[in-house]
C-alpha cells in the first residue's frame, strides 16, 4: 500500500511529508523532487518509477501532491485517494495553495493520520471527519459522545450521523451535464457524449430513505412491470414528454444500494447531510447538440489567411444560452488580425494564439457569423509546424442535452413525523460544454 | 409537493462556508510562520520552549518542531524534550508528539523507551479515540524494545468494545508482522485477525481483510500461509459485507477475493453475479477491482455461453466511463484496457470512437489511446481510424507523431484492403519532409514491404530521395534493408550503399550488420560491378570491427561466397516468412499474470511485480485459473473452438496467437531470417578447410574464384580455394572448425597482455536509467576509455556527450563521444580516444577523474580512478646506465617498498606481462634463488618511475623510486592488478 504522502510547492519545497511505511526512506521525498518536479522534460506519465519506488502524482494549481509506494499497490486506489485527500482538504480550508497548506499544516497532519493508516485509506468522508477533527482539541467528551463518533466513523452508514434535525425539510437537485463533441470540418460527428451528474443538497431530518426516479429506459421499463409504481413520477422534470433516454452507464454515490439497483433498477439511498454527488452517468445516443460550428478556413498565399465561422444554436427559441465563447486558434506567426462579427465581442488574443469570440446571451435557433483576416509573418520553419488546432466552444444552456429527466424523488422517514409531501424539492438542469471541438 | 420549476440555488456551499471560515481564520497567519528559515541557535530556543511551564508555549514549540521536520531539518536532538510533552491531555498536541516519535524513534531507540509507559497507559484510556491513536502509533515505532511491550495492549485492542479501536488494531497486526512475523504467529494474532473477519462492523472487516492480504503475501511459515488462504465460505461472507463497506473497504475486499479461485463453475457464476453491481460504483478503484475479479472468474466458465456473453457486455460500459474521469485515472484505466482488449477483444470492439484522441489530452493519455485504437482496428472501421491517424501525424508532440506514423504502418499490415491507402498516406507524410516523420515512415514501410512483397516497390524512388536526412539507426537500417532487398530494381543501389559505407565505423552495430547483408545481397544479384564494394564491406566487417557478431557474420559470408556462391544465394536471398499482423502483443502467460493484477501498478507498467518490487513478495506469481474441461469437451471434438487457456502452458493451448517482437527487435529478426531461412547452407561446416583468417592480400583471389563460379552458374564445380594458412592438421572438418574459432578468439587477446575488468561507473539508479560501465585501455600508444552504456530507462536515450573535469594528468577526450541513440534495454559499447593535453589540476586521490555524461534526459556526474599504467608511455625504456644513475640520484628516503603477495608467475612472464603495459624491464639479476627485475616507466607527463621487483619463492616485493612520491600508490595498485589479472 501507500508508503508516504508528500506535498510540494511549485519550487519543489516540501510542505507536507507523511511517511506511513518503513520501506519509504528519507531520500524518497528528494527523489521525486529531483526526478520529476525538477526534471527538464514535460511530465510523460503520472506514475514514475525511481529506484524501485513508484511515485504517483497529481497537481492542483501549482501544488504537487505525491504518493510513494514500494509494493505493487492498487494504482487506481492511490489516485482516487489523492483526489479524495484534496477534496477533504478543500472542504476544510478552501483552495489548495501554498499559503493555505502552510497555515493548516497541523490540521493536515491530523487529517492524514486519520484518513490513512499504514497506507490503507480509512474513512474519508468530510462530514464525519468534521465531527471529531476540529482543531479545537477534544476536551473531555462524554462516553456517549465518543461512542457516537466512533460508530459513525466505522459504521454501516458512515456518511450520515444520527440526530440531524431541520425545521424545514428541503432538498435541491442539480442535473449538471457536460456535452463533449468532436466534429470533422465537414460537420460529421466523430464522437459525442454527455457526462452528467446529479448533485444533491439535502437538509432532511433523521435518517430518511430516498427513492429516486429518472427517465432511463431500463429503469422505466422495469418499473412498468410493477403496477402502480409509476404513480409518483412525471411531474417533477417539468417536461411531460414520454421520451426515455438510453444511459450507457451510471455510477452512484457510496450511499446508493448498488445491489438493489442491479436487481430491481431502483435507486434508493439514505443521503448524506448537505451536498454530495448522487450519481454520474454517461450517454452517447440522441444527444441534442446545442450548437454547431461551421468553419471555413482559406489560406491566401503564405502570409494571409481568411477565417469564417458560423455558430448555429439548435434548441427551443424560448431558451437562452449564456457565457457562449468560441475560440478560433491562429498560427503562431500571426502578426495581425482583423475581425468582424455580427453579435458579441471578438478579440484576437496574442497570448493565447486565438481569436476569442464572446457572446453573453444567445437564443435558440439563431445563426451568427464571424469573419476574420489573419496576417502572418512570412513562413519560417516553426510556422510550418502549426497544426490547426480545433475550434473550441464554451457555453451554458438551461436544459439537459441528453434529455435526462428527474421523474421523482420520494422521501420516507418512518420515525419522524414528516412525510414526502412536506419536503420542499427543487430541481434545476444545466447543460455545459465539456470539450466541444470542431476541427478546421 | 414537488416544485417542478427550476429554481436557482446560488450558493452551493451555503451552509458549510461560515463554519469553514471559522476554521481557516482561526489559524490564519499563525502556522505558516513556522516554515520560515532557521536561525542559529533555534534548536536551543526550541529546547527552552519545549520545557516551558506554559502549555500553549509548549504546543507552539512542538508545532515548530514538526514544521522543521517537514522541511527536512534534523530535529532529532530534541527527542527527550518532545517526549516530555507527550503526557499532555490535549489530543492535538498528543498527535503531534506521536508524529514526531514515529519519525525519530528509530534513531533514538534507548530514549524511545521513555515513551512506552504513556503508550501503554493510553491504550487503556476511556476515550476510544485515544486508545486507537495509541495502538496506531505504537505499531509504527519500529524499535525492538517497544515491540515487546506492544503485544498485550494489541491483544486487548483487538477485542475492544469499540469498533474504531478494533479496526485500528487490525491494521496494527499487519504493522507488527512487518517488524516481526514470527512474533505475530507465536502470539496467536493471526487467529484473532481471522476472527475479526466475522465482526459485525464493516470497517473492522475491511481492515482485517487488508491486513490478512498483506500478511498472506509475506507469510513466513507454511502454517501461516495455510491459515491465511481464502476459503469459499469466507469469500461468500466477504461478498455479503461488500455492500456496507466504505469505497476503500470494497477495494480491499475485491482485491482479496481476486486471490480466490472457486472450484466449480456454478460458484464462479454466482460470484460474478454478486460482484457485477460494483461496476456502477463511483470510485474507479472499486470498478477496476471488480473488473479484475470478473475477468479472472470468466476463465472458469464455459466459453461462449450466454452468461459469459452477457457478462462481457456488462464490462464495456463501465470501462468506457472511466475515460471521463480525471486524467490520471484515465491513464490507469487505459493501461488496463490495453490488457483487457488483448485478453478479450470482444469487450470493447464497438467502442472505437471513445479512444479518439482529444487535442487537450495529456500526452500520456494520447499515447495510450493510440495504442488501443490500433488494437481495435479492423476492416470495418479502418477508414475512421486512418482519418484519425492522419490527423495525429500533424500534431506537435514528437513521440506522439512517431507513434501515429507507426500506427499507420500497423494498419496496413493488419488490414490488407487498406494497405494501399496506408501507403499513400505514408507517402504524403514523407512529402512533409519533417525529419522524424520521414524516418518513422521508412521504418514502417519496410514492414509493409515484408508483408506484401512485390506490391508497393514503386515508392522506393521516393524513399531514396530522403536518404540524406536519415540520422536514426533504425531508419538507416530499414532503408539499407530495402535497398539490399530490392537491389536489382534500384539502378544506383551500389552508389547508395557505398555512401553508407564511408561512415561504416561510426554506425551502430544494427546498421553495420544490415549494411553488410545488404551489400552481399547486392553482390549476389549484380556480381559484375559490385565486387569491389563487397570486398570493402567484408574487410571492414572482419578486420576493423570490434563487434564479434559483425565479424562472425562477415566471415561466414566471406566463406560462403568464396566456396559455394550458389549456396550463398540460397542462404542470403532465401524467401522470408511473412510477418503477421498483430504486433506488440504481450506474451500470453505474462498477459494472464497481468490480468490478475488489474488496477495495480503491475498493470500500469505492464510488467510482473517481480520486475519492480523488491523482496520475496515478488516471487509469488499469479496466473489465471484454468477451467476443468467438461466431459463433453474432453471427449468430443465438437467444441473445437473452445478457448481453454491453462496458465502453465498457455502457448501450447492457444497456437493461434504468435507473439511478434516489437519494432525494436524486428531488425534483428530480419537478419536472423536472412541467415537461417534458406536451409541450403551446406558450405559452412563441410567445406571448412578454408583459410582461418583471410587477409587483405588474398581476398582478391578468394573472391575471384567465387566470382567465376557465380558467373558460370552450373559450370564446373568450384576449385578448391587457395589456402594461405592451411588449418593445422586439416583432418576432419570439425577439427578445422575448432581451429578457426581458436584462431579468431586468439586475435584480440594477442593485442593486449592485460585488459582490466569493466568497472561500474554510473549505476542505473543514479543515471535515471542510464548505466555506464567502463575501463581505461591503452592500445598501440593510444589511450582509450571504453564505455559500455546500457539503457535501463523506458525511453530512448540519445544526444550523448562527455566531458572531463580538470585532472592530474590533463586527460581529455580526443574526439566527441560517438554513441547512437539507445533503445530501452539496449547496450552499446564505445571507445573514446583520450589525449593528455587537457587542463591540469591535482586531484585527490591523484588518479581521480571526474566525468560528466550528458544525454537527452539530464547531465550525470561520476568519478572514476584511472589505472596509472594506461598513462605509461611507450618511451619508458632507458639505458642501463641511465637507470643506475637515476636510481642513485633519487634520495634513498624517498624509496617505497611494499609486498605484493605471492604469485605463480615466472620472472619472464612477469616481465612480458608488464612490458605489455609499458613497464620496461631494464635489467635482471638472480641471487640465491631471488630474482630481481629492474624496471622503468614514464608517465605521459614525463614523470619517471623506477622499480625494483623482487621475486623470492613466489613472493613479490616492489620497491619504487621517483621524484614524485604521490604516484607510488597508483603504481603499486597497477602492479597488483596486472599481477592478479593473469595469475
TrEMBL record, chain A:
Pfam families: Adap_comp_sub, Clat_adaptor_s. The keyword Cell membrane applies. InterPro entries: Adaptor_comp_med_subunit, AP2_Mu_C_sf, AP2_Mu_N, AP_mu_sigma_su, Clathrin_mu, Clathrin_mu_CS, Longin-like_dom_sf, MHD. It is found in: Cell membrane; Membrane, Coated pit. Keywords: Cell membrane, Coated pit, Endocytosis, Membrane, Protein transport, Transport. Its main location: membrane. Residues 168-439 form the MHD domain. It comes from the Eukaryota. One of its GO terms (biological process) is intracellular protein transport. It is a peripheral membrane protein. GO terms for cellular component: clathrin adaptor complex; clathrin-coated pit; plasma membrane. Gene3D superfamilies: 3.30.450.60, Mu homology domain, subdomain B. Belongs to the adaptor complexes medium subunit family. This is MHD domain-containing protein. The lineage of its organism: Eukaryota, Metazoa, Spiralia, Lophotrochozoa, Platyhelminthes.
Automatic annotation (TrEMBL), chain B:
Keywords: Membrane, Protein transport, Transport. PANTHER family: ADAPTOR COMPLEX SUBUNIT BETA FAMILY MEMBER (PTHR11134). GO terms for biological process: intracellular protein transport; vesicle-mediated transport. Belongs to the adaptor complexes large subunit family. InterPro entries: AP_beta (IPR026739), AP_complex_bsu_1_2_4 (IPR016342), ARM-like (IPR011989), ARM-type_fold (IPR016024), B-adaptin_app_sub_C (IPR015151), Clathrin/coatomer_adapt-like_N (IPR002553), Clathrin_a/b/g-adaptin_app_Ig (IPR008152), Clathrin_app_Ig-like_sf (IPR013041). GO terms for cellular component: clathrin adaptor complex; endomembrane system. The lineage of its organism: Eukaryota, Metazoa, Spiralia, Lophotrochozoa, Platyhelminthes. The keyword Repeat does not apply. SUPFAM superfamilies: ARM repeat (SSF48371), Clathrin adaptor appendage domain (SSF49348), Subdomain of clathrin and coatomer appendage domain (SSF55711). It is a peripheral membrane protein. Residues 701-711 have a biased composition (Low complexity). Gene3D superfamilies: 2.60.40.1150, Leucine-rich Repeat Variant, TATA-Binding Protein. GO terms for molecular function: clathrin binding. Residues 872-980 form the Beta-adaptin appendage C-terminal subdomain domain. Residues 685-699 have a biased composition (Polar residues). This is AP complex subunit beta. It comes from Macrostomum lignano. Residues 678-732 are annotated as: Disordered. Residues 756-863 form the Clathrin adaptor alpha/beta/gamma-adaptin appendage Ig-like subdomain domain. It is found in: Endomembrane system.
Amino acid at each position: 500500500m501507500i508508503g508516504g504522502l508528500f506535498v510540494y510547492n511549485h519550487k519543489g519545497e516540501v510542505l507536507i511529508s507523511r511517511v506511513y511505511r518503513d520501506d519509504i526512506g528519507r531520500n524518497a521525498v528528494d527523489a521525486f523532487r529531483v526526478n520529476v518536479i525538477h526534471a527538464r522534460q514535460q511530465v510523460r506519465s503520472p506514475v514514475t518509477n525511481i529506484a524501485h519506488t513508484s511515485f504517483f502524482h497529481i497537481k492542483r494549481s501549482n501544488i504537487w501532491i505525491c504518493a510513494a509506494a514500494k509494493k505493487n499497490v492498487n494504482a487506481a486506489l492511490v489516485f482516487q485517494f489523492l483526489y479524495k485527500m484534496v477534496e477533504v482538504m478543500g472542504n476544510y480550508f478552501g483552495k489548495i495553495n501554498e499559503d493555505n497548506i502552510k497555515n493548516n499544516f497541523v490540521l493536515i497532519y491530523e487529517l492524514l493520520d486519520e484518513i490513512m493508516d499504514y497506507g490503507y485509506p480509512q474513512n474519508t468522508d468530510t462530514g464525519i471527519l468534521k465531527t471529531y477533527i476540529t482543531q479545537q482539541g477534544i476536551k473531555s467528551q462524554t462516553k456517549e459522545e465518543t461512542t457516537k463518533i466512533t460508530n459513525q466513523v466505522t459504521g454501516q452508514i458512515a456518511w450520515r450521523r444520527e440526530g440531524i434535525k431541520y425545521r424545514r425539510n428541503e432538498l435541491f437537485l442539480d442535473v449538471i451535464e457536460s456535452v463533449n463533441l468532436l466534429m470533422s470540418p465537414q460537420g460529421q460527428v466523430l464522437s459525442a457524449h454527455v457526462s452528467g451528474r446529479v448533485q444533491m443538497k439535502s437538509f432532511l431530518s433523521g435518517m430518511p430513505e430516498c427513492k429516486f426516479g429518472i427517465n432511463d429506459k431500463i429503469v422505466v421499463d422495469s418499473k412498468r412491470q410493477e403496477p402502480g409504481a409509476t404513480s409518483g413520477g412525471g411531474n417533477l422534470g417539468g417536461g411531460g414528454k414520454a421520451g426515455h433516454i438510453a444511459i450507457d452507464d451510471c455510477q452512484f454515490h457510496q450511499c446508493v444500494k448498488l445491489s438493489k439497483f442491479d436487481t430491481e433498477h431502483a435507486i434508493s439511498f439514505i443521503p448524506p447531510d448537505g451536498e454530495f454527488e448522487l450519481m454520474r452517468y454517461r450517454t452517447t445516443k440522441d444527444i441534442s447538440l446545442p450548437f454547431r460550428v461551421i468553419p471555413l478556413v482559406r489560406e491566401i498565399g503564405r502570409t494571409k489567411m481568411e477565417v469564417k465561422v458560423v455558430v448555429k444554436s439548435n434548441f427551443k427559441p424560448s431558451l437562452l444560452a449564456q457565457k457562449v465563447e468560441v475560440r478560433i486558434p491562429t498560427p503562431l506567426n500571426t502578426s495581425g488580425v482583423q475581425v468582424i462579427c455580427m453579435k458579441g465581442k471578438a478579440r484576437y488574443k496574442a497570448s493565447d494564439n486565438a481569436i476569442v469570440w464572446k457572446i453573453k446571451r444567445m437564443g435558440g435557433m439563431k445563426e451568427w457569423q464571424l469573419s476574420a483576416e489573419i496576417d502572418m509573418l512570412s513562413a519560417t520553419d516553426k510556422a510550418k509546424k502549426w497544426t490547426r488546432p480545433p475550434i473550441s466552444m464554451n457555453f451554458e444552456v438551461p436544459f439537459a442535452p441528453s434529455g435526462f429527466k428527474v421523474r421523482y424523488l420520494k422521501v420516507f422517514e418512518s420515525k419522524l413525523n414528516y412525510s414526502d409531501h412536506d419536503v420542499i424539492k427543487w430541481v434545476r438542469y444545466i447543460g455545459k460544454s465539456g470539450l466541444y471541438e470542431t476541427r478546421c | 409537493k414537488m416544485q417542478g420549476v427550476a429554481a436557482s440555488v446560488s450558493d452551493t456551499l451555503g451552509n458549510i462556508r461560515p463554519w469553514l471560515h471559522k476554521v481557516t481564520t482561526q489559524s490564519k497567519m499563525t502556522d505558516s510562520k513556522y516554515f520560515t528559515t532557521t536561525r542559529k541557535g533555534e534548536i536551543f530556543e526550541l529546547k527552552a520552549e519545549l520545557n516551558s511551564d506554559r502549555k500553549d508555549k509548549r504546543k507552539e514549540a512542538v508545532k515548530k518542531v514538526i514544521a522543521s521536520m517537514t522541511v527536512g531539518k534534523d530535529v532529532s536532538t530534541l527527542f527527550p524534550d518532545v517526549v516530555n510533552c507527550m503526557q499532555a491531555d490535549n489530543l492535538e498536541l498528543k498527535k503531534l508528539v506521536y508524529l514526531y516519535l514515529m519519525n525519530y524513534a528509530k534513531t533514538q531507540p534507548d530514549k524511545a523507551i521513555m515513551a512506552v509507559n504513556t503508550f501503554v497507559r493510553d491504550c487503556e484510556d476511556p476515550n476510544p479515540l485515544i486508545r486507537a491513536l495509541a495502538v496506531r502509533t505504537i505499531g509504527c515505532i519500529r524499535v525492538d524494545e517497544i515491540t515487546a511491550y506492544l503485544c498485550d495492549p494489541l491483544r486487548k485492542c483487538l477485542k475492544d468494545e469499540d469498533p474504531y479501536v478494533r479496526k485500528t488494531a487490525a491494521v496494527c497486526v499487519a504493522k507488527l508482522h512487518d517488524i516481526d512475523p514470527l512474533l505475530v504467529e507465536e502470539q496467536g494474532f493471526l487467529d484473532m485477525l481471522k476472527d475479526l473477519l466475522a465482526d459485525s462492523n464493516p470497517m473492522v472487516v475491511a481492515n482485517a481483510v487488508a491486513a490478512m492480504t498483506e500478511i498472506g503475501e509475506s507469510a513466513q511459515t507454511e502454517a501461516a500461509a495455510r491459515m491465511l488462504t481464502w476459503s469459499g465460505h469466507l469469500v461468500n461472507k466477504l461478498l455479503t459485507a461488500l455492500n456496507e463497506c466504505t469505497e476503500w473497504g470494497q477495494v480491499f475486499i475485491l482485491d482479496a477475493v481476486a486471490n480466490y479461485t472457486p472450484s466449480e463453475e456454478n460458484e464462479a457464476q454466482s460470484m460474478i453475479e454478486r460482484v457485477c453491481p460494483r461496476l456502477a460504483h463511483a470510485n474507479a478503484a472499486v470498478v477496476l477491482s471488480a473488473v479484475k475479479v470478473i475477468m479472472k472468474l470468466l476463465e472458469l466458465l464455459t466459453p461462449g455461453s450466454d452468461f459469459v456473453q452477457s457478462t462481457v457486455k456488462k464490462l464495456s460500459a463501465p470501462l468506457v466511463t472511466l475515460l471521463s474521469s480525471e486524467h490520471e485515472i484515465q491513464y490507469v484505466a487505459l493501461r488496463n484496457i490495453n490488457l483487457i482488449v488483448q485478453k478479450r477483444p470482444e469487450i470493447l470492439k464497438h467502442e472505437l470512437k471513445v479512444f479518439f484522441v482529444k487535442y487537450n489530452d495529456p500526452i500520456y493519455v494520447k499515447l495510450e489511446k493510440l495504442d488501443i485504437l490500433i488494437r481495435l482496428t479492423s476492416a470495418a472501421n479502418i477508414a475512421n481510424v486512418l482519418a484519425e491517424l492522419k490527423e495525429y501525424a500533424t500534431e506537435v508532440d514528437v513521440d506522439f507523431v512517431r507513434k501515429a506514423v507507426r500506427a499507420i504502418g500497423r494498419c496496413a499490415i493488419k488490414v490488407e484492403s487498406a494497405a494501399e491507402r496506408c501507403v499513400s498516406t505514408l507517402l504524403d507524410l514523407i512529402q512533409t519532409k519533417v525529419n522524424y516523420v520521414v524516418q518513422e515512415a521508412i521504418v514502417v514501410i519496410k514492414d509493409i514491404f515484408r508483408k506484401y512483397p512485390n506490391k508497393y516497390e514503386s515508392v522506393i524512388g521516393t524513399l531514396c530521395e530522403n536518404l540524406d536526412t536519415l540520422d536514426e539507426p533504425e531508419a538507416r537500417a530499414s532503408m539499407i534493408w530495402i535497398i539490399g532487398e530490392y537491389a536489382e530494381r534500384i539502378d544506383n543501389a551500389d552508389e547508395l550503399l557505398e555512401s553508407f559505407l564511408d561512415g561504416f565505423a561510426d554506425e551502430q552495430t544494427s546498421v553495420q550488420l544490415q549494411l553488410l547483408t545488404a551489400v552481399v545481397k547486392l553482390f549476389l544479384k549484380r556480381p559484375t560491378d559490385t565486387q569491389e564494394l563487397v570486398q570493402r564491406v567484408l574487410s571492414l566487417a572482419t578486420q576493423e570491427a570490434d563487434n564479434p557478431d559483425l565479424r562472425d557474420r562477415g566471415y561466414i559470408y566471406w566463406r560462403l561466397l568464396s566456396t559455394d556462391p550458389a549456396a550463398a544465394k540460397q542462404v542470403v536471398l532465401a524467401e522470408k516468412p511473412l510477418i503477421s499482423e498483430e504486433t506488440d502483443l504481450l506474451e500470453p502467460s505474462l498477459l494472464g499474470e497481468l490480468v490478475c493484477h488489474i488496477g495495480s501498478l503491475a498493470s500500469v507498467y505492464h510488467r510482473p511485480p517481480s520486475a519492480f518490487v523488491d523482496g520475496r513478495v515478488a516471487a509469488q506469481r499469479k496466473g489465471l485459473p484454468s477451467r476443468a474441461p467438461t466431459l463433453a469437451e474432453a471427449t468430443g471434438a465438437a467444441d473445437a473452438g473452445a478457448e481453454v487457456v491453462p496458465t502453465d502452458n498457455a502457448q501450447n493451448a492457444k497456437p493461434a496467437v504468435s507473439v511478434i517482437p516489437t519494432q525494436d527487435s524486428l531488425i534483428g529478426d530480419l537478419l536472423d531470417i536472412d541467415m537461417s531461412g534458406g536451409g541450403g547452407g551446406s558450405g559452412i561446416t563441410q567445406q571448412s578447410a578454408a583459410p582461418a583468417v583471410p587477409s587483405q592480400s588474398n581476398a582478391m583471389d578468394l573472391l575471384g574464384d567465387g566470382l567465376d563460379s557465380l558467373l558460370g552458374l552450373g559450370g564446373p564445380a568450384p576449385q578448391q580455394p587457395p589456402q594461405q594458412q592451411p588449418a593445422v592438421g586439416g583432418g576432419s572438418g570439425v577439427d578445422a572448425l575448432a581451429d578457426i574459432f581458436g584462431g579468431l578468439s586468439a586475435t584480440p587477446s594477442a593485442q593486449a597482455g592485460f585488459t582490466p575488468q569493466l568497472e561500474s561507473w554510473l549505476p542505473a539508479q543514479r543515471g535515471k536509467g542510464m548505466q555506464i560501465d567502463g575501463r581505461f585501455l591503452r592500445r598501440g600508444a593510444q589511450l582509450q576509455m571504453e564505455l559500455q552504456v546500457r539503457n535501463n530507462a523506458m525511453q530512448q536515450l540519445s544526444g550523448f556527450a562527455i566531458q572531463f573535469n580538470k585532472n592530474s594528468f590533463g586527460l581529455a577526450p580526443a574526439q566527441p563521444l560517438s554513441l547512437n541513440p539507445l533503445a530501452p534495454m539496449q547496450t552499446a559499447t564505445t571507445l573514446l580516444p583520450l589525449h593528455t593535453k587537457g587542463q591540469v589540476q591535482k586531484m585527490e586521490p591523484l588518479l581521480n577523474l571526474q566525468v560528466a555524461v550528458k544525454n537527452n534526459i539530464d547531465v550525470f556526474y561520476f568519478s572514476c580512478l584511472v589505472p596509472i599504467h594506461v598513462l605509461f608511455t611507450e618511451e619508458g625504456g632507458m639505458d642501463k646506465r641511465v637507470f643506475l644513475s637515476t636510481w642513485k640520484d633519487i634520495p634513498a628516503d624517498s624509496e617505497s617498498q611494499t609486498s605484493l603477495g605471492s604469485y605463480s608467475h615466472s620472472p619472464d612472464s612477469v616481465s612480458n606481462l608488464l612490458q605489455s603495459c609499458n613497464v620496461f624491464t631494464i635489467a635482471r639479476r638472480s641471487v640465491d634463488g631471488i630474482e630481481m627485475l629492474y624496471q622503468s616507466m614514464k608517465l605521459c607527463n614525463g614523470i619517471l618511475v623506477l622499480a625494483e621487483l623482487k621475486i623470492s619463492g613466489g613472493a613479490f616485493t616492489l620497491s619504487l623510486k621517483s621524484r614524485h612520491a604521490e604516484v607510488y600508490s597508483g603504481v603499486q595498485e597497477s602492479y597488483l592488478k596486472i599481477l592478479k589479472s593473469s595469475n
